[in-house]
Amino acid sequence: MPEADAPSSAEALYRALVVGRARTPVFAGAVEGADGAGEGANPLCGDRVAVSLRRDAEGRVAEIRHESDGCAICVAAADLMAETVSGLDAVAIGALRSGFEAMLRDGAAATSAPQRDRLGLLNAFADLHEYKSRRKCATLPWSALSAALAPDGKE
After folding, report:
1. Can you tell which superkingdom this protein's organism belongs to (predicted)?
2. Least packed by Cβ within 10 Å: which of 76, 79, 90, 126?
3. pLDDT of 92-137, one tens digit each?
4. Residue 4 lies in a domain
């Protein structure tokens, strides 16, 4: 029988991914020769994210990096976002962002199984739907990514 205060599998996933990626981001830095760059900031808490990327000939993200200064949620969200969007085009990224934001707003239970599958590692943030003030921490990197994908560098 599990202990009453043992973490659930969702909590364990959160700890492993979010805390680990916040401490040691895999996609931190800047892309040399980037063809897209964007920034996002949350003046209320001080989180800041810069995203740089390079696209391949078909318009898919070939390389992406972030420079994030913020809370653990923001840094981890930027890193997991970068991993998840690698190889995708702007249309697929837009659909993924919409699904991620819906999950944050409504929770995993309201998200379809196919969408949860597409979100992959980003499902670690599912419980943030209970903490409205923390959702911006997780979505800020997506704003920077949208700006990086836009022709004028603005979301």
Report:
1. Bacteria
2. 90
3. 999 999 999 999 998 877 778 888 889 988 988 988 888 888 999 9
4. no
Per-residue pLDDT at 38 exceeds 70: yes
For residue 89, the enclosing domain spans: 9-149
Q: Establish if 70 belongs to a structural domain.
A: yes
Residue 155 token pair: 């979301």
Q: Which residue shows structure tokens 């999950």?
A: 103
* Contacts (Cβ under 8 Å, ≥6 apart) of 24: none
Q: Tally the domains of the chain.
A: 1
Using CA atoms, how far apart are residues 105 and 31, in angstroms rounded to an integer? 31
pTM above threshold 0.85: yes
Burial (Cβ within 10 Å: 0-12, 13-18, ≥19) of residue 101: middle
Contacts of 54 (CB under 8 A, 6+ apart): 31, 33, 34, 35, 36, 61, 62, 63, 64
Looking at residue 139, its pLDDT comes to 96
Average pLDDT in the chain: 89
| Residues 70-79: tens digit of each pLDDT | 999 999 999 9
Question: Does the residue 155 lie in any domain?
Answer: no
